[in-house]
UniProtKB/TrEMBL annotation:
Organism of origin: Metabacillus idriensis
Protein name as catalogued: Glycerophosphodiester phosphodiesterase
Database matches in PROSITE patterns: GP_PDE (PS51704)
Signal peptide: none
SUPFAM superfamilies noted in UniProt: PLC-like phosphodiesterases
Amino acid sequence: MTKIFGHRGAAGTYPENTMPSFKAAIDFGADGIELDVHLSKDGVPVVIHDETVDRTTNGNGFVKDLTFSQLKTLDACCRFPEYTGIAGIPSLEEVLSWSGTSNFLVNIELKNDRIQYENLEEKVIQQIFTHNMQNRVILSSFNHDSLMRCRSISTELETAALISERLFEPWNYAKTLSASGIHPIHYAADQQVIFQSQANGIQVRPFTVNDDTTMRMLFRSECAGFFTDYPEKALLLKKEII
């Protein structure tokens, strides 16, 4: 059955990659959440999408140049001023500690395709095991070398390659990475890609799917899952179709 992942939580209606957004996605009934991880200056895995804090917070500068304490002083309410003061940048530790009390899935995107964070994979994987989340986490990245590194650290964890363009036989490419899934941009995930990939044991979860037509196609194709900014809408459509 197609699983619905709240992209950065419920990013269409809440401040992305914040605890209010993650909690809203799960309250709506999403099967899981997706989040992005960088490292602070002092090596703490933090949950934020961009390499800088400029777009989503009231601060400025690169995440890598700010300590965790400095990052925690920032307001991450982004486009939603009503969450001022209650939506900050969470640590991965904070999200996993909260997630560990339930049973939903967590997709962790390693944001190391532009900046090579030292030991990001080791730090993230250590926290996953600390919180006993290894059976509920998917590690994804546009940096496919990083996915291979994750596999070398632990073969227990599920990995998925993020893909921003159409590839020839992406299911075979995923196998070269020892990945169990692909996360293609939505327009690169047509029915043939879905059927062929999943027939070859590779799960397909497109991003970022916000329109009704694509959601319906993915449900009817029995796609493994997809990422959406509007998990509440996706849940309503899923009920209509099923």
